[in-house]
């Protein structure tokens, strides 16, 4: 099958590759669901520690010109119970383009921190790899 579009000839293989790419991108964009409602496990048990994953926590701007990292640690400490534990879990504080931080959290801690004042959204951190075709970039 050959398609003609704007005076150009396109093969059905090209169309199929585009459709497959769209489906693949849609599948890669789906994020895992956190099935933790009603989870009564303690956040300090060895099983809970092994369940922890890096999340990005988007927050409002820190109040009263507070330093962003101090605000982030204080927010984390409300879930972890101490500033030392919060500092250990904190991976990075975003200060310029966005207000927030990344931290290693268990599913239960995700639920707890999402209820904290100033927290706008909590999302799992994902690493995506770009795939280039056989052609070299110029």
UniProtKB/TrEMBL annotation:
Domain of life according to the entry: Eukaryota
Signal sequence bounds: 1-28
Keywords, in A-Z order: Signal
InterPro entries xref list: S8pro/Inhibitor_I9, S8pro/Inhibitor_I9_sf
Pfam family, one: Inhibitor_I9
Ranges for domain Inhibitor I9: 55-131
Cross-referenced PANTHER family: PROTEINASE INHIBITOR, PROPEPTIDE
Protein name as it appears in the record: Subtilisin-like protease SBT3.11
Organism annotation: Ziziphus jujuba
Source taxonomy: Eukaryota, Viridiplantae, Streptophyta, Embryophyta, Tracheophyta
């Amino acid at each position: 099958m050959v398609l003609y579009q704007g005076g150009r000839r396109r093969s059905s293989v090209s169309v199929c590759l585009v459709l497959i790419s769209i489906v693949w991108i849609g599948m890669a964009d789906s994020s895992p669901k956190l099935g933790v409602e009603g989870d009564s496990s303690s956040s300090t048990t060895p099983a809970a520690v092994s369940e922890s994953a890096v999340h990005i926590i988007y927050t409002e701007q820190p109040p009263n010109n507070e330093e962003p990292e101090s605000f982030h640690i204080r927010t984390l400490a409300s879930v972890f119970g101490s500033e030392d534990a919060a500092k250990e879990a904190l991976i990075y504080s975003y200060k310029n383009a966005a207000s927030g931080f990344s931290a290693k959290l268990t599913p239960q801690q995700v639920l707890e921190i999402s209820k904290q004042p100033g927290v706008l959204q909590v999302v799992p951190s994902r690493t995506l790899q770009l795939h280039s075709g056989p052609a070299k970039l110029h």
